[in-house]
Structures are given as structure tokens and as C-alpha cells.
Amino acid sequence: MIMICSFLGVCGNNLVCLELNCCKLVKGRILKIISKACLNLEELHLQSCTGASAASFAFLKSLTSLRVLDLYRTLVDTESLVQIMSSCQKLERVNLGACNNNNECSKVLLKMARKCK
């Protein structure tokens, strides 16, 4: 985990796309580092990253340049999704397939619909 933290700290600001699908190292600490070091990210792919807690996905709300967010089969919860949708106004594509912690899907859909106006 130290290597990925170092990499993100040094190179994160230059990244526009980060794909960490199925990465067992992705936990809350990594999401926090991504949210602080990778402010120019336009695409973030976290498919099947099940090591991060539901609430830790809220860190991603600071990635305001995101256009693509892939959270397929993660533990992201409704509250985190609402926060992300509120602050990431450039989002064009979001994958929430198999996200079983999102029990109040209607809240997320309403937030997405308001963003589309």
C-alpha cells in the first residue's frame, strides 16, 4: 500500500484517468489520498473494489472534474452517492451496477435528475 500512496502523492495531480478495478489495496485511506492528490481526474474506475467502507466513498466528492465514475460492485452507500452527485457537476457517466448498499436509489436518481437540468 505504501507504493500506491507514494505514487499518488507524486503523480496524482498529473492523472486524468485512474483505473483500479479489482484492486484489493483500495480502502478508505486510498480514497482519501485520491481525493486530495488527484484533483484533475476525469475518470475513476473502481469496479469490484470492496475493501473501502461505504462512507469512505464520500471522499470522492472533492473530485469535481470527474466525468466518468465507475463504482460497479462496491460498497458505496446512498449518502456518499448523494454527496458525490452534488459536488461533481461534470459527471456524464456513472456505473452503480451491483451496488447493494444503495438502499435509497430514488434519492440518488433525484440528485442526478436535478443535475441534468
From TrEMBL:
It comes from the Eukaryota. InterPro entries: LRR_dom_sf. SUPFAM superfamilies: RNI-like (SSF52047). This is Uncharacterized protein. It comes from Helobdella robusta. The lineage of its organism: Eukaryota, Metazoa, Spiralia, Lophotrochozoa, Annelida.
